[in-house]
Design a protein that fits this description.
8-stranded mixed sheet, alpha/beta
Length: about 500
């Protein structure tokens, strides 16, 4: 071989070596090996992360949840019926994100943040991850601002603060959802953006809730995220996290948000279904071992941020449905241990006509007076303890054939307070008016009024206070009533009492 030919061959080899790609991009894809009940077993899908979104050849999107040695187990998000075995699957390198923007307010979306209200597509400028690590303790501030629900039994007995997690718990059909909806309705004009997450609910119930919110103008500051009972278990599992991402957006932008999880019992059931299909080992009540972490990493994201961290807050009202009053079951005890307080309802109170049917003896708020204005602290200081003692005394009096006069007078007095705490749905009472009504009871002005006229007294008192605005303005401005306001208030109370004797 001639020397020139050899040199040309060497030059060609060197040029090919120099132009070759030493870092080729290998597409991370393989095939569906097995498919059943919303779960797919994919073989050969390497370099995929936990909770990563994977795309199927048919366009469906799923999430990788089990990473085995030779297989990856993914669960359905959408289009399960279009997927077939041996279909190509591709990893996207992204975790699930949802669009966030103030224009999303007023919309009804599913867990993937796709609109289901027929009002067109959602155009958002930012994406927030569905899963996010909760803010560390140094970025938080202790709860000190009240989140006023304008529900007398809550604001006076189990107050809620901005950034708190207050659980609403009891059996079905005891008014849990209604308390949450009233709390949303009563945020109108208070600068709080609300997110209502419906998990595993019937479509008709969600439609009625949305219609009620729209009718009363609450959709102007509310977002509804829903995963219906007919949706895959994955959607019911992801819905609370998607709603939480939206509420976090407002918190991180220096605003206040309130999120309702209705309810986490159904989310736990959906997660149990997913875990059993993924062949994870079952634990207590067949729930997976990490179901506690599922709820804790969700609820811990609620916080009141400090002044250096945008000052915003996210308040959570999770709902748990018990079975036959069993609060010692696995999921209720888990969520009770995570939250900052619990509102226990009572079936007997509900059936007797006491609405909202809050059991004041069991209910507790762990931030307590930090979430109340000074005026409410003063008039309701021992109210909760005394009401709990009244419940015990009333139960004992059912078996007593004869009661002394002082005991009868005490029972009669507390029956007036129970009547005062009754509140119809969609009937908000501002905290300033609540203070005046409880003050009238605490000072004994209601002792001469028949129990059946307490609510009439209350309505007339509020009407008089609307006429004499200086009392409410004083309490609203200073968070406490002055001596001058007290004298005016007592004059109004006495005049209303005389009309109802």
């Amino acid at each position: 071989m001639s020397e020139n030919l050899l040199n040309s061959i060497i030059d060609e080899i060197e040029s090919k070596i120099d132009s070759s790609n030493t870092d080729p991009k290998v597409e991370n894809s393989w095939e569906v090996f097995y498919l059943w009940d919303g779960v797919a077993n994919v073989s050969g899908l390497r370099w995929v992360a936990y909770n990563e979104v994977v795309e199927f050849e048919s366009g469906a999107k799923w999430i990788a949840l089990n990473l085995d040695t030779h297989f990856v187990w993914v669960v359905v998000l959408e289009w399960f019926n279009k997927i077939k075995e041996w279909e190509t699957v591709k990893a996207t390198g992204k975790t699930l994100e949802v669009p966030v923007w103030k224009e999303v307010v007023g919309r009804v979306v599913n867990a993937l943040w796709e609109p289901i209200d027929g009002l067109g597509d959602i155009k958002a400028k930012e994406l927030y991850p569905v899963e996010r690590v909760a803010e560390w303790v140094m970025a938080r501030k202790s709860v000190h601002e009240p989140l006023e629900t304008w529900i007398k039994a809550i604001d006076a007995l189990v107050p809620i603060g901005r950034g708190q997690r207050e659980l609403i718990i009891w059996d079905r059909q005891t008014g849990k959802t209604q308390i949450a909806i009233d709390a949303i309705l009563n945020q109108k004009g208070l600068g709080v953006t609300c997110v209502y997450v419906a998990i595993g609910q019937k479509e008709g119930k969600v439609a009625r809730v949305v219609e009620e919110l729209r009718k009363r103008g609450a959709m102007d500051y509310t977002i509804v995220v829903t995963a219906w009972a007919s949706d895959p278990a994955t959607m019911q599992y992801l819905a609370p996290y998607a709603g939480c991402a939206m509420a976090e957006y407002f918190m991180y932008n220096g605003q206040h948000s309130l999120i309702i999880y209705d309810d986490l019992s159904k989310q736990a059931n959906a997660y149990r279904e997913m875990s059993l299909l993924l062949r994870r080992p079952p634990g207590r009540e067949a729930y997976p071992w990490d179901v506690f972490y599922t709820h804790s990493r969700l609820l811990e994201r609620s916080a009141k941020l400090n002044d250096e961290m945008w000052v915003g807050s996210m308040t959570a009202l999770p709902i748990i449905e018990t079975q036959a009053w069993d609060v010692s079951a696995y999921i209720p005890t888990n969520v009770i241990s995570i939250t900052d307080g619990q509102i226990f309802l009572d079936s007997n109170l509900f059936n007797s006509g006491q609405r909202p049917a809050i059991d004041v003896g069991l209910s507790v708020s762990r931030v307590w007076w930090a979430a109340q204005i000074k005026a409410m602290k003063k008039v309701s200081g021992t109210l909760k303890l005394d009401l709990a003692q009244y419940r015990e005394l009333a139960a004992f009096s059912q078996f007593a054939s004869d009661l002394d006069e002082s005991t009868k007078a005490q029972l009669d007095r507390w029956e007036r307070m129970m009547a005062l705490l009754k509140q119809n749905v969609y009937s908000p009472v501002p905290v300033t008016k609540q203070v005046c009504a409880i003050y009238a009871w605490a000072k004994g002005f209601l002792d001469s009024i028949p129990v059946n006229k307490v609510n009439k007294f209350e309505e007339e008192l509020y009407a008089k206070l609307d006429e004499e605005k200086t009392i409410l303005e004083d309490i609203n401005k200073n968070k406490m009533y002055s001596d001058e306001s007290v004298s005016k208030l007592e004059e109004i109370i006495k005049s209303v009492v005389e009309m109802n004797k």
